[in-house]
Specification:
Blueprint lengths: L4 E4 L20 E5 L8 E5 L6 H16 L3 E4 L5 H11 L4 E5 L12 H9 L3 E4 L11 H12 L2 E4 L7 H11 L3 E4 L10 H8 L3 E2 L3 H12 L15 H8 L4 H5 L6 H13 L3 E3 L5 E3 L1 H4 L7
Length: 297
């Protein structure tokens, strides 16, 4: 299926005038799909490319939550958290905008081909500052990050290293006066140092889905039925593994379950795909595990 290609200059119908906060001279925007979506309020959901299942699931669930109340999700289309955010919105019947670091008529990375094709079909758009047919150039990605920040009313970081493209986007959003949200992570996780740093420096701490719904209600003027905002209920063992990978022996010293119960439960979770055993013998939660709402031990 072929979608409309467009080139937008300042003053054109569909040009996202909200980006003026980030530019002295407004750029030309190239796009594929629905140009009118660019004038809608947007939530940017971004995070690490090489994210953990924790960060990926938070991005996916945030995308779904935004879609439930008609908020368009904007991301960079990268693998990891960006991909999960757009996919969550699309699977919930919502819309998304991908800001690409290459020409809007191309796909990068190839692993995100599913969302690049799905986004325009669902009424969204793939846009870029690079001209048609332009492939990867390193300097283009900081430009892409700035545009993501400029498009967004609010920006949510689900997981990020301290020195990363995600953090440059968050920094740009702060300078533009955007609302910044961040999920906390383990102090032992390199991919949570960025989000923890943002929280320590004034970003809104997001505790769970209900907390995110409250922030979106305030900043976007939307209403959530709180009965529909699902909060994960985890058993004791899964809760411990969400916080940090542990071996069976380490779990036995931290929780009240008996050693036999721990071993049996770990075996069951591993068979069901909720956890995986790493090379050092510790267990960690998978993306499927983070979706295990209501799991009982």
């Amino acid at each position: 299926m072929e979608f409309e290609r467009f080139e937008l200059n300042e003053g054109d119908t569909g040009y996202p005038i909200q980006i003026a906060d980030g530019y002295e001279k407004l750029p030309v925007i190239y796009g594929v799909g629905n140009r009118e979506i660019l004038q809608q309020p947007m939530l940017a959901i971004i995070g690490a490319r090489r994210a953990t299942p924790y960060g990926i699931d938070l991005a996916y669930q945030a995308g779904r939550l935004a879609a439930q109340v008609g908020i368009t999700v904007v991301s960079g289309g990268a693998m990891g958290c960006d991909h999960a955010a757009s996919r969550g919105a699309l699977e919930a019947g919502g819309t998304s905008v991908i800001v690409s670091g290459i020409g809007a008529d191309l796909v990068y990375p190839k692993s995100s081909e599913d969302i690049f094709s799905w986004v325009p079909r669902a009424g969204g758009a793939v846009i870029a500052l690079e001209s048609w047919g332009q492939y990867v150039r390193r300097y283009a990605f900081p430009k892409r990050n700035r545009l993501i920040a400029a498009l967004a009313t609010s920006l949510l970081v689900t997981e990020a290293g301290k020195h990363s493209g995600t953090m440059t986007t968050a920094d740009a959003a702060m300078r533009m006066g955007r609302n910044i949200y961040a999920y906390p992570g383990s102090v032992y996780s390199a991919t949570s140092r960025g989000t923890n740093y943002l929280i320590a420096n004034g970003a809104e701490l997001i505790l769970d889905a209900a907390d995110l719904a409250s922030r979106l209600s305030l900043d976007f003027g939307v209403h959530f039925n709180q009965n529909e905002v699902k909060l994960p209920r985890r058993g004791e063992i899964l809760s411990a593994l969400v916080a940090n990978p542990y071996s069976a022996r380490e779990l036995a010293s931290k929780i009240t379950s008996t050693p036999l119960t721990i071993i049996d439960t770990l075996t069951m979770y591993e068979e069901e795909g909720y956890i995986v055993r790493m090379l050092d013998g510790r267990y960690t939660v998978t993306a499927r595990g983070f979706h295990a709402i209501g799991t009982k031990e």
